[in-house]
Amino acid sequence: MLDPAFANDTQSEAIALLVAVVTFLFVTILSTLFLRRNSRRRYRSRHASSQRDGYETDLRDVGQQLRAVMAASFEKRQLMSPSEYRVFKILEDCLDEARMGYRVFAQTCLGEVLRSADSKAYRSINSKRVDILVVDRRGLPVVAVEYQGAGHYQGSAAARDAIKKEALRKAGVRYVEVTPNDSDEQIRSRVREHLSWPVAATVRRDRAQLADTSDSELETSCGRSI
């Protein structure tokens, strides 16, 4: 005959095991539901900004990108402000006169002309732009020009400029700031200071002007003699 004490112990162990199993299943179900709910929340938050015209747009998909572009309208906008474009033209004409292979580019992203083995540092400058960039005959950047207009140093502008300056300095690219008060000649001379052509370019320009003057005088004298 089965000992009552043994039977009671067995029954208690079975109940305890059953309670443990039920508790484990309950905790597992709750954890699964919690994770699913959080996942849905993250999904809705991530895609909420992509809700357009009654359909959800995941702009990581190039097909959805094309759909968004086809449904939208576009118009031209100025690459530079009138003041920035004035500085651009001054430098373009100045460097063209020098005939030393320098070229001028506008609104250039630093990520296109600088590189770094440090991915964090590169991401910090990748999308930052300089107003005007001068490159040499090999296409390497030599001088970056920033137009500091009225109200330029607002918000985090000063900090962004400091980041650009430091990255350019480490890459060996000169940094020049231009203000609305600078004259055309001040802008030219400021950039010339950072390029290795001040004497040669000036001599070449003066010779060209002298040759033009001589030709004009010759034509005038010929006309008089006739």
Describe the model:
The protein is of the alpha+beta class. Among the domains are: 1-43; 82-195, Trna Endonuclease, Chain: A, domain 1, CATH 3.40.1350.10. The chain is built from eight helices and six strands. The strands form two sheets. Strands 3-4-5-6 form a four-stranded mixed β-sheet, sandwiched between helices. A hairpin with a 2-residue loop joins strand 1 (51-52) and strand 2 (55-56). Helix 3 (82-98) crosses helix 7 (184-192). The chain is elongated. The model is unreliable at 198-203 and 218-226 (pLDDT under 50).
SSE sequence, one letter per element: HEEHHEHHEEHEHH
Count every helix, treating DSSP H or I runs of 4 or more residues as helices: 8
Terminal Cα span = 150 Å
Counting DSSP E segments of at least 2 residues, the number of strands comes to 6
Uncertain residue segments:
198-203, 218-226
SS-derived structural category:
alpha+beta
Helix content: 55-70%
- CATH topology of the domain at 82-195, by name, is Trna Endonuclease, Chain: A, domain 1
Query: What is the approximate shape?
Result: elongated
CATH architect. name of the domain at 82-195: 3-Layer(aba) Sandwich
What is the level 1 CATH name of the domain at 82-195?
Alpha Beta
Q: Give average pLDDT, whole number.
A: 79
